[in-house]
Specification:
The chain has 416 residues and is mainly alpha-helical. The chain has a two-stranded antiparallel sheet with strand order 1-3. A two-stranded parallel sheet has the order 2-4. The chain starts with a helix and ends with a helix.
Length: 416
Amino acid sequence: MVGELTINPKHEPRAYSVMPFVWSIGTIIGPSIGGIFSAPADNFPDVFSPHGVFAKFPYLLPNLICAALMLFSIVCGFFFLEETHPDMQPWSTEDDLQHTEAETPLFAAQAGTTTAAVDLRNESYGTFNKVVQDQEWNVLPDGTDAPKEAEPQNQVVFTKRVVMLIIALGIFTYHSMSYDHLLPIFFQDSRVESRAHGNKMNSMAGGLGLSIQDVGVVMSVNGLIALGVQAIIFPLAAAWLGVWKLFIVTTVLHPIAYVVVPYLVLLPEEWLYPGIYACLTIRNIFAILVYPVILILLKEAAPAPSCLGKINGLAASTGAACRTLASPIAGILYGIGIEIDFTALAWWVSGAVAILGAMQVFFINRKKSSEWHQVRARAPCRFMPPEEHRQEIVHIVVQDEEEQELEADEQRRLLA
């Protein structure tokens, strides 16, 4: 609906960038609601009775608040959003409907609960920063548009580069979802005070023993950190390093985010929260930087724009399968870790998957695409490299009639 509601096609990238920004805001507000309003009979005894329904169901209040917010959004959408489906327009007649087309929305690709879903056919890459690319115009000597070449019927959509990038997206989705699943469990798991100094495995037993309210606050701060990384660090890193180098760096260093988390149980009380926020910052930097660049590279690798629908479908299905497997596997491993007094097991297995992704990245073909993408911050920034301020580039290819006929003959020969 975002694309359909945008009247000027030039404004579509800016319209799509609103979705990741709103998603980031939700990751800040959502944990706050869950943490503050859970167990209200214990936290607000003057307001809620210790024998009432909220004492019996301690998580009822935050769920009611979320349900009320969803109802509010439904009411707002019903009264204020315009209907875009051609079959549902007030002016639609039987003759009009014969000449209208409606597409079923594709299942969008998503890496985890902290990232917004993305349709590769749109000018959106899971970031609210501006992503610009070169344009190419094919014209005839008289300035008119050159006829578009017919695409081969048996064109290979899933090239080796496309498949390898989808695998990279799947690996990232798996360990990213594992992190999101393990984090609140690890925060609330009981803290083991007595540790056997002679056994290193026992030193990694238990979690941090935080209360639900503390977890809610930490997760909200995590959303703020993610928003800052998205707005400041990502455009700067992408501008200075470029899309490909940033992809390599973040993928290779990503396992660090999983290795360091279990060591939080060894920190003294006064260093616990600084350690938590340091770990969350490391993770957000790697996860938020790598997700958009994978999508940019995947779109660049597409043989033709008409192939993006199929590529998006496979990428979304791969991500959904990895998210489905990540949570139960991470939960099982954490349960095993509790039994053997080694809760680092689940974290380090996810880190091993991230290491696998770091190894896989070197098998991706580095062939430069005909397209060129550059990330720019929405607001002016003095730390951007000078290239960021140049105008968008348009490549103009002039084709004469003889060249056009030769290309048409070659195209017919390939299709024969």
